[in-house]
Design a protein that fits this description.
The complex is a heterotrimer of chains A (156), B (266) and C (780). Chain B folds into three domains: 46 residues, Uridine Diphospho-n-acetylenolpyruvylglucosamine Reductase, domain 2 (2-Layer Sandwich); 112 residues, Uridine Diphospho-n-acetylenolpyruvylglucosamine Reductase, domain 3, CATH 3.30.465; 95 residues, Enolase-like, domain 1 (2-Layer Sandwich). Helices cover 32% and strands 23% of the residues of chain B. Chain B contains ten helices and twelve strands. In chain B, the strands form three sheets. In chain B, strands 4-5-8-6-7 form a five-stranded antiparallel beta sheet. Chain B has a four-stranded antiparallel beta sheet with strand order 9-10-11-12, sandwiched between helices. In chain B, β9 and β10 form a beta hairpin. Classes of the chains: A alpha+beta (156), B alpha+beta (266), C alpha+beta (780).
Chain lengths: 156, 266, 780
């Protein structure tokens, strides 16, 4: 057991947890932040993507204790006040989701992509390549690409 | 996942001591291979010693043509280093195609090289650049480091601290990804070094991990062109064979991807 | 059309909770005292259980129970059923073996449940599951369907001799053979439809609780059809009578067919929760999903098609072997029969068709419906052989199809179906134009100059949706009726609740169903709430599959809306002292036509509930239910064109463009329909290029994670060019046909036809992996 302390969506949280607890389990089971999902066992589907210290990571492939001392943002922390994040709004406006299961990880990846590459540098090819670690079974990616294009513009 | 005990080291020395104090302790860096393996209950280290908080193992430094990449430097950091791209764009491009963006934010060069996955990308660069692997104990030449898949010259309590190499005269890495895992089904790092020697290092395709193709190297030393290696032979008996492609297909990939790497490095 | 009515691109009402992380999926629910189940699964393809030693597991921390199949059957839990009876051509009923939710004596595939551990934490349950020692006696096994039929093949079930479940046929054999014998040209092909894993991104899960005081069960589960789940759990598995079991399917992360069925894990969680006195949760991991979710497809067929000298089809003969896995899943028997062979006429006028299907057991995971279910197998067969025949006869593949199109409706095929409406030339023309089919020659030349092989392929698909009417499917062996229910509950303030049996797990029902109310009464969709997925809230309904929620589910709502409208008009006529026939409802107002007299919609609704001033004898309230049973299947159809470029050095295929021209009948929300087509096409591209479930000769699943099962990712596919071309379906009140499966049905042959065109070799098997394509190009 270790004491794990981190900032999650702007709030400091502290828990005594087993060292083997994954970050995604910490978020879902300890903090009830069930918007972060688990869709595979091999770090490929990306449903679990959150931001740690401002960077997109797979919360299923990191121990909670590894993230101790870090700032974590999950899908629940993306909107500010009552306003959706522009990327969230873009997914709605462009029908970038169907069943919604991959959506939190997809949106967190998309925001990270815009932060990293810059809104002006996002052509379709770049977007598709950068979604390599996020699998969606419903949308065929077509409208996810449209959503990210629109979300990037709105973030600019 | 089996129970484990986590330790965070702040120096190389502390990391080695922590490792020695555990029954079956392992170093963890980005954890992008080790954590999934533990989740599948295929690895059960008693202790994990986290290397990501050791300042001495981080960062990229370039001194003329001499490049040093700290072992705890992430793939994302290598991929986005403009300074490194100025002297060896091939390694930046290689790092930019490991895993996916989220994996690249965690995974490190030291972890990748130490693990020596037969389909990992970095071993090809280390071998292809004739790099040195600097450890907590010594410096190991690339030629002496890789001992077949998942096996290296590292001792149990030895940790990679940095990878160093001389910027090549020209180099390129071309990866042909496995359609499912996106690991390299064949990745070729082709380089002409400052001393004029040529390295062709191949990952993903061989049945015993990363290897050099000396026939191609000799042909390219005489004539750096795709045509020069067109007739080089690749022994199917040395190739992996699995549901994604048999050894004949992989042997073909080695030829084709090597040619493309030479083109890209022209 | 209003801005929120039928045909409008209304943004989805349900999106906000998903984009903010507030969706509620089964695994998100917790209960006080909740425990976790971990299954002990067979590592062998076929074995006898000689004994189970639970002692070590039972002694481990947190373990409250280690349960086996004998305890399960001892408590009276029944075997799993198959809900569709198929008779062999000799009249005998299908030969079905027993399937217990936990194996009692034999395990028959790798992943078959042999025991279950329940513990206080998931980690403790998993650790204890590893400590259960099962003494297996390995038995001979058979993996491939063709091998299962051979003399001396290992036997899976005593009930099915030679592993044959049924030997079924449709159509006239002699007439078909005669027609083919007299044909001017005959094309023959052996066609394999590869085995797939559905892979909804949310793995299956179940959370069961038994309340002893009320003698009542609650089950949260990942189901496309919670009422059917409750019915089957009650009537066949004897878990509890229906009124003592509440099944909730909350937000469900995709289904694609795989969440229709009632699996062993739900049964075991319910049973264990009562037996052990704790709530029990089980959530599949991805490897368990690959091992145990019902797979799809897996057909091997021999087909022969004959043409006269003008290129008109004279006869079509198909012999299919279908692999159903180790057990018969809930609707498995219907997939390679009535959902498959009835579509073998394609879009074509064919006088003589005969299809024989032998369905067999093998030591592999159960196979059942996966997006399209039978119709993709039929379409792939028809469209591969049409394209190949055209090439053999030196004809333009588009022209050969056009020459054989059905053009008069209704059209009775020789394989049961009666096509009601369509315009196949319209979708073909539109697709060819959008794809610039006429200039493919130039593009091939340009690609050739770059060392690449370009090709184009067509697929003119037809499918049957709705899977109804009930009397018809009943006569064909279905164990249930396939109608749908809808209830319109108007509140006293005029807002509306829709209660539907059609579960939504990505299809957007919460929006499209609300659009029906907007269209009818002019109420904003925000004033409409769609309620589904809870047997305590919603009347019995049949669920979501077979692209039926529009044509069947919405039709039920239309009928309920008719009743609400009629009653509201009566009330309004009474209140305004007008003739009922003069009342119109629009824009949220109830008006007397041709006058300025009107009432707000909410005033009429309130009047219905106060009951102060209603017509003589009228009951108060404004709530109506309807059960809708269609008169026929619906027949969506269209043409898909795929253009590819193959790298001859690596065999890798790039999809350059994909064009879809579909006829879905009347469309309620084009945005949602497009999304369905995008997703369907991508699954079809997945089948054609990437996906393949592979067992090795020992029955071990080699593709048990995303490391080896290639899922389509964003950079594997292009953006798509879509169009729709409406012919109104005469079979339902809205004229809808269905759009959920078309993309997955129509796309694989277009893609394979494009690759075979590019490489000049028709002998390509799905998936067209680079290694396979390279080997064909190089004659390896």
């Amino acid at each position: 057991m270790s004491k794990v302390s981190m900032t999650v969506n702007g709030k400091t949280v502290e828990r005594e947890v087993e060292d083997r607890m994954l970050l995604v389990e910490f978020l879902r089971e300890e903090l009830n932040l069930t918007g972060t999902h688990v869709g595979c066992d091999t770090s490929q589907c990306g449903a679990c993507v959150v931001h740690v210290d401002g960077k997109a990571v797979k919360s299923c492939t990191q121990l909670a204790v590894q993230a101790s001392g870090c700032e974590v943002v999950t899908i629940e922390g993306l909107a500010t006040g009552g306003d959706l994040h522009p990327m969230q709004a873009a997914f709605k406006e462009n029908h970038g989701l169907q069943c919604g299961f991959c959506t939190p990880g997809m949106i967190m990846t998309a925001v990270d992509l815009v932060n990293r590459v810059g809104a002006g540098n996002l052509d379709e090819k770049t977007i598709r390549e950068n979604l390599e670690g996020n699998i969606c079974r419903c949308t065929g990616y077509h409208n996810i690409v449209r959503s990210i294009e629109a979300g990037a513009k709105a973030m600019a | 996942m089996y129970a484990t005990n986590y330790h965070r080291a702040s120096s190389v020395e502390e990391a080695v001591n922590l490792l020695k104090s555990g029954d079956d302790a392992k170093f963890v860096s980005g954890g992008q291979t080790l954590i999934p393996t533990m989740k599948q209950r295929l690895a059960a280290p008693s202790d994990l010693v986290d290397l990501r908080h050791i300042d001495a193992m981080k960062g990229i430094s370039i001194d003329g043509v001499q490049v040093t990449i700290g072992a705890a430097t992430t793939h994302a950091e290598v991929a986005s280093s403009a300074e490194l791209a100025g002297v060896c764009a091939a390694i930046c491009s290689l790092a930019a195609h490991i895993g996916d963006p989220a994996v690249r934010h965690m995974g490190t060069i030291g972890g990748s090289v130490a693990n020596n996955d037969p389909a990992a990308d970095y071993p090809a660069a280390v071998l292809g650049l004739d790099a040195q692997v600097r450890t907590s104990k010594r410096t190991i030449d690339a030629a002496d480091f890789f001992n077949g898949m998942f096996d290296t010259a590292l001792e149990e309590d030895e940790v990679i601290t940095a990878i160093t190499f001389q910027a090549p005269e020209k180099a390129a890495y071309v990866k042909y990804p496995n359609p499912a895992s996106r690991y390299a089904m064949c990745g070729v790092f082709a380089a002409r070094l400052k001393d004029g020697s040529v390295r062709v290092a191949i990952t993903g395709a061989g049945n015993d991990g990363v290897f050099r193709h000396t026939e191609m190297e000799e042909a390219l030393a005489a004539d750096w062109s795709p045509a020069a290696i067109a007739s080089c032979s690749v022994d199917e008996g040395d190739m992996l064979s699995d549901i994604h492609g048999d050894s004949a297909y992989r042997a073909n990939l080695v030829r084709v991807i090597a040619k493309r790497a030479v083109e890209a490095a022209a | 059309m209003g801005v929120e009515g039928i045909g409008a691109r209304v943004l989805r009402k349900e999106d906000k909770r998903f984009i903010t992380g507030k969706g509620r999926y089964t695994d998100d629910f917790k209960m006080a005292g909740m425990h976790y189940a971990a299954f002990v699964r067979s590592p062998h393809a076929h074995a006898k259980i000689r004994g189970i030693d639970k002692s070590a597991a039972e002694a481990m921390p947190g373990v409250v129970g280690v349960l086996d199949g004998k305890q399960l059957t001892g408590d009276g839990i029944g075997n799993l059923i198959c809900g569709w009876m198929i008779h062999s051509k000799d009249g005998s009923p299908m030969n079905m073996g027993a399937w217990s939710a936990i194996a009692t004596e034999h395990v028959r595939y790798v992943g078959d449940a042999a025991a279950v551990v329940v513990a206080d934490t998931l980690e403790n349950a998993r650790a204890a599951a590893e400590a259960v020692v099962i003494d297996y006696e390995e038995l001979p096994h058979v993996i491939r369907a063709v091998d299962a039929l051979k003399d001396g093949a290992p036997q899976l079930h005593p009930e099915a001799k030679g592993n044959l479940i049924y030997d079924w046929e449709i159509g006239e054999k002699d007439a078909t053979e005669q027609a083919i014998a007299g044909a001017a040209h005959v094309t023959e092909m052996e066609i394999v439809n590869n085995r797939l894993s559905p892979n909804p991104m949310e793995p299956r899960a179940a959370l069961a609780n038994y309340d002893e005081a009320d003698d009542h069960f609650t089950l949260y589960t990942t189901s496309q059809n919670p009422h059917v789940a409750r019915l089957v759990l009650s009537a066949f598995y004897q878990v509890a009578p229906e009124h003592k079991l509440r099944v909730i399917a909350p937000d469900v992360g995709g289904g694609f067919g795989s969440k229709i069925y009632i699996y062993p894990e739900e049964i075991v969680c319910l049973w264990a929760s009562k037996r052990l006195g704790v709530p029990v949760k089980w959530t599949s991991d991805r490897t368990e999903a690959f091992l145990t979710d019902a797979h799809g497809r897996d057909h091997v067929s021999k087909a022969r098609i004959g043409f006269d000298k003008d290129g008109k089809i004279v006869g079509f003969s198909i012999d299919t072997i279908a692999n159903i896995g180790a057990y018969m899943s809930l609707f498995s028997s219907s997939v390679p029969t009535y959902l498959y062979a009835t579509l073998l006429s394609g879009q074509y006028n064919i006088a003589n068709i005969h299809c024989n299907v032998r369905t067999v057991y093998t030591n592999t995971a159960p196979v059942d419906a996966y997006r399209g279910a039978g119709r993709p197998e039929a379409t792939y067969l028809v469209e591969r052989i049409m394209e190949t025949a055209a090439r053999e006869m030196g004809m333009d593949p588009a022209e050969l199809r056009r020459r054989n199109f059905v053009s008069e409706f209704p059209h009775q095929t020789p394989v049961i179906m009666c096509y009601d409406a369509g315009d196949y030339n319209a979708t073909l023309d539109a697709a060819l134009k959008a794809a610039d089919y006429a200039n493919i020659g130039k593009r091939k030349e340009e690609a050739k100059a770059r060392g690449k092989l370009r090709g184009i392929g067509l697929s003119c698909y037809i499918e049957a949706c709705g899977i109804a009417p009930s009397a018809a499917v009943g006569s064909l062996g279905a164990g249930v009726g396939l109608w749908e229910s809808g209830e319109i509950r108007v509140n006293p303030v005029g807002t509306v609740e829709i209660l539907t049996g059609s579960h939504s797990h990505g299809q957007g029902h919460e929006t499209t169903f609300a659009q029906l109310v907007n269209e009818r009464f002019g109420l904003p969709v925000d004033n409409v709430q769609v309620i589904h997925g809870d047997t305590d809230k919603v009347q019995f309904g049949m669920g979501t599959y077979g692209s039926r929620s529009g044509a069947v589910g919405m039709s039920a709502l239309v009928k309920a809306l008719d009743k609400v409208e009629a009653k509201a008009k009566k009330i309004a006529a009474h209140l305004m002292e007008a003739d009922e026939g003069d009342i119109v409802i629009e824009d949220g107002e109830v008006k007397v036509a041709g006058t300025d007299r009107k009432l707000g919609w909410h005033e009429v609704c309130l009047a219905a509930y106060t009951g102060h001033n209603l017509p003589q004898g009228m009951e108060p309230g404004l709530k109506e239910t309807a059960f809708y049973d269609p008169t026929n299947f619906t027949f969506p159809a269209g043409t898909y064109v795929c253009e590819v470029e193959v790298d001859p050095e690596t065999g890798k295929t790039e999809v350059i463009q994909f064009v879809a021209a579909d006829d879905f009948g009347v469309i309620v929300n084009p945005m949602i329909v497009e999304g369905q087509v995008h997703g369907g096409i991508t699954q079809g591209i997945g089948q054609a290029l990437l996906e393949n479930v592979i067992y090795d000769d020992n029955g071990q699943l080699l593709t048990a994670s995303y490391m080896d099962y290639a899922m389509p990712r964003a950079d594997d596919v292009p953006s798509y060019k879509l169009s729709t071309h409406e012919t109104v379906c005469p079979g339902n009140p809205m004229g809808m046909k269905g759009c959920g499966e078309a993309g997955a049905i129509g796309s694989p042959p277009a893609l394979i036809n494009a690759i075979t065109d590019a490489i000049g070799n028709n002998n390509l098997t799905m998936p067209a992996t680079p290694a396979r394509v390279w080997a064909l190009i190089n004659g390896k």
